[in-house]
Design brief:
This protein is an alpha/beta fold. It has 3 helices and 6 strands; from the N terminus they run E-E-E-H-E-H-E-H-E. 34% of the residues lie in helices and 35% in strands.
Length: 105
């Protein structure tokens, strides 16, 4: 799924599913994110890994979608060490419902 500001790539390495997200996550595209999360959960034998390292903006609709998903399915969020997304993940409490891992490299 893609538009000028948002892109999701998917893969299923091993038993878990990986979603690589880039751009901005907001009300305009949260339905695409939600659909991708549900599809990934349906094929994953393990946690759904959501790579947020390419995300420039994470709005409240995206936070809610990630919270909702993490409450129902094992979820790991990969976030950059610093920046706006790391701050939003920390301040929102997403780490209380999903595993948060730092980006490698």
């Amino acid at each position: 799924m893609t538009d000028a500001q948002f892109d999701i790539t998917t893969g299923v390495p091993g038993a878990g599913a990986v979603l690589g997200i880039s751009g901005e996550i907001d009300l305009a595209n949260v339905e695409d994110l939600t659909s991708a999360l549900l599809e990934a959960a349906g094929v994953a034998d393990g946690p759904v890994v959501v790579d947020l390292t390419g995300v420039r903006f994470l709005g409240s609709a995206g936070i809610r979608a990630l919270f909702t998903h993490a409450l129902r399915h094992p979820t790991e969020l990969v976030v950059p060490d610093d920046g706006v997304v790391a701050s939003v993940v920390a301040l929102s409490g997403l780490g209380q419902v999903a595993r948060v891992s730092p980006a490698c490299g």
